[in-house]
Amino acid sequence: MKYIIFKLLLVFAMLPVIAQTSVKGTVIDRITSEKLTEVTVVLEGSNLTTQTDAAGAFVLTQNVPVGDQILTISKNGYVTRRFPVVINEGRTLDLGEVTLDVDVETEQRLNGLISLSDNDLNGEDDGIGGLNVSGLLSAGRDTFLSAAAFDWSATFFRPRGLDNANGKVLINGIEMNKQFNGRPQWGNWGGLNDAQRNREFTPGLSANEYSFGGLGGTTNIIMRASQYRKGGRVSYAAANRSYQGRIMGSYSSGLRADGWAFTILASRRFGNEGFVEGTLYDANSIFAAVEKKINDKHSLNVTSFFTPNRRGRSTALTQEIFNLKGRQYNPFWGYQDGEKRNTRIREIEEPVFLLNHYWTVSDKTSINTNIGYQTGTIKNSRIDNNGTTLIESNGQQFFAGGARNPSPDYYQLLPSFFLQDANPTPGDFQNAFLAQQEFVNDGQFDWGRLYESNATLRSQGRNALYAVQNDVIEDSQLSANIILNTALTDHITINANVSYRNLSSENYAEISDLLGATGYLDIDSFTEAESGDASGDISTDNAQSDVRNPNRIVGEGDRYKYNYEIDADVVSGFAQAQFKYNKVDFYLGGTITQTNYQRNGLFENGNFQNVDGSVGSFGNSEKLDFSTGGVKAGFTYKITGRHLVDVNAGYYTNAPTIRNSFVNARQNNEIVEGLESEQIQSIDVSYIFRSPIVKGRLTGYYTGFEKGTDIGFYFTEDLGGLGDNGDAFVQEVLTNVDRRNMGIELGLEAQILPTLKLKASASVGQYTYTNNPNLYLRSDDFEGALRFGDGTTNLNDVHVAGGPEKAFQLGFEYRDPNFWNIGVTTNFFSNAYIDVSNLARSANFLTDSDGLPINDFDQGVARDLLKQQQFNDYFLVNIVGGKSWRVNDYFLGFFATINNVLDEEYVTGGFEQSRNATFRNVREDKARENGPVFGPRFFFGNGTTYYVNFYVRF
Amino acid sequence: MKTIKLIQLFTMLVALVVLSACVQDDDFSVPELNTGVNTIDGQLVAISSIASQAVQEGGPITFEGTNQYIEGYVISSDEAGNFFEEFIIQDSPENPTASIRVLVDVNPLFTSYEFGRKVFIKLDRLTAGDANGILTLSLLDTNNAAIKIPPSLQDEIIVRSTEVATIVPLEITISDFSESLENLYVRLVDMQFIKEEVVDASLTFAAEELDQFDGERTLLSCVTNQTAIFSTSTFADFKALSLPTGRGTIDGILTRNFFGDVFNIVVNDPSTIVFDQTDRCDPVEIDCGVASSAGATVLFEDFFETQNTNQPISGNGWTNFQQEGTQAWEAFSSTGQNASLGISARVGSFMSGDASTISWLITPQINLDAQGGETLQFMTSNSFSDGSTLELLFSSDWDGVPANIPSATWDAIPAGIIVDDADFFGDWIDSGIVDLSCIEGSGYIGFRYIGSGAADFDGTFELDEIQINAQ
Fold first, then answer.
1. Is any Cβ of chain B less than 8 angstroms from the Cβ of A407?
2. Are strands A874-887 and B146-147 parallel, antiparallel or unpaired?
C-alpha cells in the first residue's frame, strides 16, 4: 500500500522543478498528523544527513548521489523507516508527507525492562555480576542489540560477556556510574520511564561526543526540559515480575514562546511481592526539569529527580532447596502481624540535581557545561544474630550470648544435613523427614522467635540477641564537566571533555530495629577470647568495634560495627577527532585520568588497632593515586551503500574501583597488595549489509583484560595448614587477573512485507581466564596474608561466570495498519557456567590441616571434582503485542508482554561455596548419596510472567 | 485554562499515587508475645518416677501414646556457651529431689528456656535413659544412640509455662556427691581452687594448651579438705578468664564428665562463683625441694615385709589411726597386674559404708636436728582412687596421742610425688628423694587418706618402701 503511494510520488518527482539534484519531504506522526521536528534523515552509504525543521520539513541538496538509494528516516521513539528511492540527476525528488509510527513496542518494552535491571540489582552482591542493559535500552534499531535487550536480558545474557561496569551511563552529559564499583545505580532513576525516552547510545568504544566511553557502550540519557515533546501522559501498568503495579503521570510544556520549558513526572511502583515470594516493591519517583532558552546562543537547564525506593530481596538457592520449595521460594521473609516481612530490604534514597548550560558559540561550535550533585543513602538490611551481654566476674569481663544463624534455609535444618553420613541410621532418616516436613510446610523466617528471645533476655536485664542491621552507604558526590564540540571543517569534528568529580562516602552499620530489646552491645562476638594476663582485659579489647569507645550499648539509629569514610577525587580529560568522507569515516580519541582514594576510619577496630608497624584502622589510610589513560581509533569503510565494514580498536587502563582497592574497608586501612590498574585492549570488526528488504550485521570481537583485581568475602571451614581450626571469615584478594572475551555476533532482519518483519540473532562467545591470578586471604582469625603454594589459583581456561555464552533468536513482528502489533520470539541459550570457588583451585585444595600435602590426593578424582559446571540449555518463548486508539485529542493504548510462555525452568547463574575447599572435604561432600550439605547455589529464572501497560496520551 | 486543567489532573494523579497501592510498611511494631501457658493437657508424672522406672527397667524407657508429661525448672543456661544443645530441669525450685537432662538440636536455648523457667515436656515419642551416666530425655535411634529433639518438634514437645521461679541452690558438701544429687543445682560453701592452679600458676577456665573439649580444674573444700573436679567447655565464652584466686561459695550443677565416670561441678557462667574472701585455706607447706641423693644413714625404714597380710599395719613405731570411718591401713600381698611389692600397705573405703573416711598412717617421731641431709623416699600406687585422696604431711606439734591427731598442725610436703588417679593402677610411683633437711626440730611424717563409702570416693591407695635417710 505504502509502496504504491511512493511509486506515485516518484512519478510526480520526475518533473523538474529546479535544476539541482535534491530530495525533500515533510515528516508527520501517522496518528496525530503532528509535524515532527528533529527527525534524522540519512541517505544510506553517503555522508548526507539532515534533520527536519520546526515544520517537519527536510531537504538534502549537496552532492546527492544519483541512482537507486535508500533513505532512512528515524526519530527516537518512532519506528525507523527505510525508503528505496530513485534519484535522478538535476531533479528534485519530493517525497511529500512521510508518516512515522510511534514505536509503541520499543517504548513500552523499555518500560518493562527497567524492572529487569532492578532485579539485577538484587543479585549484585550475591555473587553474580551486574547485567549490562544500560546501552541496550535504546537499542531499538539494531536487530542484535534489541534481541539482547528485550529477550535475552531476563536470563542475564551479557553482550560480549561484559559486566555492567563496562557500560557508561550519562545523564545530560554527566557520568552516573558509581565510583564504588563502577556500576550505574539504576534505582536512582527508576520509575522515570516517560522522562527517559531521549537516549543516545554509542556501542562499544566507537566515537561519541561526551566521553571516552566504555566497552559496553555509552548511553547519554537526555533529560533536558526543552527536549520533551509537548503533552501529557498517564499510564498504569500491571505485572507479576518485580512490581505488581505502576502508575505514572507526566507533562511537558515543550519549548514555549517565552523561552521556558518545563517537564514534571510522578510515579509510584508497588507490590507485596514479584515472581519471587516476599520481594516487596515500594518506590516513588518524582522528576522536574526547567529550562530557559535565554537567547539563540544560551540555554540553561535544571533537572532534578528523587526516586526513593524499597525492595525486598531474594537469594540464590541450592538444588536441594529448589527441589523442596521451587524457584519462587525466598528464605528471607517470614510472617509478622499476618504480613510477609522481608529481612533483607534494600532502600535507596539518592536525589540528583543537575545544572546544565548549553552554549552555541557558532553554528560550528558548542560548549556544554554541567554540574551535578547527588547525595543520599543506600541501606541494606539483614539480621544480626550475634548480640551479647557484658558479664563481670571476679573483676574480669566476658561476653555471653550469640545465636546460630536463624535463616530457615540454614544448612543444619535441611534433610541433607541429617543424611550426610555414609550409612544414615533410621533416626537420621526420621530427622531428615521431620526437617523436610518442616521446611516444606513452613520454611520461612520466624520473626516471632526473635522477638520472644529478645523479650526473654530483656526480662533478665540482658541486651539484644537479635537485631535488624542496616549497612549504610551515605554518598555525596559533586560532578562537573565541560564538553566541547566543534566542526573544524565539513569533514572534521573535534570533541573534548574535561571533568572532575569528588565523592565523599560514609559507610557504616546502624541498628534499624532492636526487635523489642533495649540495646545492643557493640562488640564482635566472633573475636576469639585470648588467654593470658590475669586482668582479662586483652580479650575484651580485641573484640571492640571501637576501642576508643568500648562496650558501648547502641540503640536504634546508632552507628555500630564499622564506620569509615572514603574520599575519592577523579580528574579526567578526553579529546577526539572525527573525520567523515565519502568512502570512509574514522576517528581517533584519547583520554587521561587521575584518580585518588583515601579511607578515613572513624572507629578503631579492636583487631586492627593503631599500633606501630600496622596500618591500623583509625584515621587516614595511605592515599592511593592512579594515573590511567588510553587511546582508541576506528573507521567505517563504505564498500558500497549496501556493504560496509566497521572497525573499532582501543587500548586503555582503568583505575581499580574503591571496592577492589581496600582489603576490608569495614575493618582497617589495609590496601590490596600488588594493586594495579586494569589494562584493556579491544578490537571489533563488523560487516554491515543493507538492502531494501534485508539488513544485517556480523561482528567479531576480541577483548583482553590484564592485571584485574577482585575481592570476595565468605566464610570457610576448610583452610589447610591452620591446624584443627580451619574456620575463618575471610577476604579473598585476587590480583593480576587476566581474562579474554571473544566471539561473534549476528543480527539479521528481513522486512518481507510492509507489515511483517522476520528477525534472527546469534551470539557465540567465549569468556575465559587466561592466566593463574594471584590469590591471598586476609582475616582477623589469622595473622598476615595467607597464601597457598606458589600464591596463585588455577583459573587459566576457566570460564568467567556471567550468563550464557551462546544465545540464538528467531522471531517475527507483525504491525497491522489498524494500529495493533504482535511479535513472537523463540530464544535458545547455552554454555552458561558456574562461578567457581577460587580457593578450591589454589594449592589449599591439596593442603592438609598440618600444612603438608594431602596424602590420598588423586589427580584424576580432583579433575572431576573441580570441573566447572555448565548449566543446562533452555528455550524461552516471548510474546509481545499492543494496540492503540485515538479518541478526539487523546491517544489510548495498551501494550503487553508475556515472557517465558512455556514456563521453562532454568538456571541463569550460580556459584560454588568455598566452605569446603580441600580435596577430601569436597570429595566427601560431593559424594554424599543424599546431596551435598554445601552444594552450589543457583539463581533460577522466572516462570511465565506478564506485563501489561495502559496509557493515555494528550 | 489548559494549565488549570493540567494542574487539576496532576493533583489528582498525585493523590491517586499517594492513596493507591499501599505496600506493607517496614514499621513493624513489637508483636504480642507468647509468654507461656499455665497448664497443659495430659497426665503429669514426676521426674523422680521416671528415674526410678528407668532403674527398674534396667534400660531406657520409651513413651508412646501415654499422654504423659513432666514439669520442671530450668537450671542450666547455654548463654555463655558452657552448655550446648541441652538443658537441665529439676523438679522444684527449692529442695529438689530429681532432675533430667533434655537434648534439643537448637541453639540457643536460653532465649526460650531461661534459668528458672518452668517447662512442661510431653513424653510421647521420647526416651528416658542413661547417657554418659546422666538421666537424659531424647529421641532414640535404633542403635540406641540418643537423637536430639529436632527443631521441628521443639515447640510440640516442650511447652513453656508462664512461671519463672527463683532457683534456690541446694547446699551440699563434696562428700555428699551421689547419684541422687546428680543434675541438681547445688551450692558448695567455703571452697577454693587448688593452689597449683591459681597460686603456683594462673590457669584459665578452659583455654590452656592441654584443654580438649573441657578444661578440668580442681576445687578444694576448706572444711573437709576434699577436692572435686570443676569442668568448663572449651567453647564457653568465659574460657579465657583466669580462675578466681579467692575462697567462697560456688553455685553450679553437679554433673558428670564426658565419660560419665567422675562427678563434675559445672557453672552456667562464672558469676555464680563468689570467691570474695582473700584468705585462702592452703595447707602450710614445708618444701625443702628434692635432694640429688639419699644419705647412707637410715633413720627409719619399713618395707612392710614383716607385717601380717590382711591385718592392720602395726609395730615399728607406726600410728594407724581412723579419724573418721572404719578403714584402717592394712598389709596385703598380691600378684598379677595389680601386684604389691612383696607385702605392702593399703587403705581404701570401697564397700565400707562410711559416710566419711579419714585414715592416718604416721611414722615414729624423727629428730631432724641430730644429723644433716635428711631425705624421705616411698612408693605409692592406686586402684581406682576416684575422688579419694592421699596426702603427705608433717607435724612438729603433735604430742603422740592418737586422739590429738586432728587438732595438731599438719603441714603439706609438696615435694613428695603421690600417685595420680590418671596413673595406671598397676604401676608403683616413686616419690622422688624428698629433702627434709630444712626442717628444724623433731616431728612426724603422716600419710592421710580421705574418702568415703560413696562410689565416687571409695578409691584405694597402696604404700610401700618408706625410707628416711641421713648423711
1. no
2. unpaired
